[in-house]
């Protein structure tokens, strides 16, 4: 009897200590997280920028030597255009690249150049989902990928997931930034569903309490639990 009571006390202590040793997550959340990781409408515009590997059609009116459907943003993020030279294109929107071409061509070679820039092929880009999900992995990012959609592609959180500790990490201006989101609030419509962009990493946190409780159940046979807690 005493041994069983001691076992119960020890296992209960294990469950309670799970949260104490989990460590405090200091990543920004709520409104501060939304400043770093904007909601869909704002982030979707970010998806329009040119990326490494994108294929472009550039049209220069009256200049067949400059007009081609075969331009591509190279591995360094640049594009090579006759007369205009090498232009840093990755991170620019097509309109900004057009303006730069107009400036360069108009300054020395062509009077009032008429230029069009069209994205004809997007380079496929990906994001990662890790942590306590059923099927972590690498998935293709699209302009409609939000945090909920990203988690769904990983087949949803598993039984040990901590839904109020879903983290997103992103490179912003060369710096690694992160924020924390409450998946339960997003599902209920009480918080915005942030956009997930190419290169993001989503990490679903681990619930120490759920994990300790699972170990508790595995460590104590059902008949002992019934005897101890009846």
TrEMBL record:
Output the superkingdom of the source species: Bacteria
Q: Does the keyword Hydrolase apply?
A: no
Give the Polysaccharide export protein N-terminal domain ranges: 44-120
Q: Which residues form the signal peptide?
A: 1-22
| Keywords associated with the record | Signal
One Pfam family linked to the record: Poly_export
Looking up PROSITE patterns in the UniProt record yields: PROKAR_LIPOPROTEIN
**The protein's name in its UniProt record:** Polysaccharide biosynthesis/export family protein
Please give the organism: Novosphingobium aquiterrae
